[in-house]
Amino acid sequence: AQSVSQHNHHVILSEAASLELGCNYSYGGTVNLFWYVQYPGQHLQLLLKYFSGDPLVKGIKGFEAEFIKSKFSFNLRKPSVQWSDTAEYFCAASPSGTYKYIFGTGTRLKVLA
Amino acid sequence: ETGVTQSPTHLIKTRGQQVTLRCSSQSGHNTVSWYQQALGQGPQFIFQYYREEENGRGNFPPRFSGLQFPNYSSELNVNALELDDSALYLCASSDIDMAEAFFGQGTRLTVV
After folding, report:
1. CA A72 → CA A55, A102, A103, B49, B74, distances in Å?
2. A94 contacts B100? CB cut-off 8 A
3. Do the Cβ atoms of A102 and B45 come within 8 Å?
4. What is the pLDDT of residues A69-79, one digit of tens each?
5. pLDDT per residue over A28-38, tens digit each?
6. Which of A25, A92, B48, B74 has CA 20 to 30 A from B89's CA?
């Protein structure tokens, strides 16, 4: 079955620390990949997406993600987190030609000031 | 602000009752998808509507049904509510290519 795994459920970092959140998907074909963020009390917002081309994707607010096809991974990174990055982060996959997103269970990030 | 609005924001229903949730999609989008997000889980795909027709369905029973109207707004109906239906229900608006989905803030349904 198609699925998305996020290995870190809760992450606590101090400001200025580097961040890497893991995401793996299980699907052998072409897949579009996304990271969404949900700030406290707000709706899900798109951080970045990968469809094709350069496997290193840059998104908003200094986030980036790298697609590694051989590892079925799409990890999210940020060199230096800020207190305002405290949120829940969701990785999602959309197998090409389908009409749905498959979400991971999410990672709650808390950044300490 | 995404332009996707959902109503109501919170709802409490009794087991066995029926509920209708509503979603107004973002201007220019012809596709609406519904997701269920249980506590501590990621959103799970319920179904999608494209130009008023169901365009795909996740692993949800038939008591979950929907409609899309000519203005592309949408309803999610759930019959015979069960306790496990308690969740946040999210509506997502997009073009059919799903290049980017815009989510509403959701409706928090509690079944008691």
Report:
1. 12, 14, 15, 29, 34
2. no
3. yes
4. 999 999 999 99
5. 788 999 999 99
6. A25
